[in-house]
Amino acid sequence: ALFSVVEAADRPSLIDALEREAERRGRPIQALLQVNIAGEARKAGCAPDDAPALAARLLASPAFDLRGLM
User: Fold this and answer.
1) Where do runs of H (alpha helix) occur along the chain?
2) Interatomic CA distance for residues 58 and 53, integer angstroms
3) Does residue 54 contact residue 17 with C-beta atoms inside 8 Å?
4) What is the DSSP letter of 1?
5) Distance set, CA 2 to CA 5, 6, 11, 29 (Å)
6) pLDDT digit string (tens) for 3-58?
7) Closest Cα to residue 33, out of 47, 49, 51?
8) Closest CA relative to residue 64, chosen from 2, 45, 25
9) How far apart are CA 40 and CA 51, in angstroms?
């Protein structure tokens, strides 16, 4: 494996791609939900208002082991 934890799960399209990869590998991916609490356009991460829905999606999927926020 090239990585042990994905630190930038921050949008549905990335979660979709990672979910497919986890299914292909046959094991869950450890992930951190990246939240842009500063609201700066040049910083990565989801908006704080989007975090609960993205966290719920990661928690509901057997493809992920949500380890926390970043």
Assistant:
1) 12-25, 51-60
2) 9
3) no
4) -
5) 10, 10, 21, 12
6) 789 988 999 999 999 999 999 989 999 999 999 999 999 999 999 999 999 999 99
7) 51
8) 25
9) 16
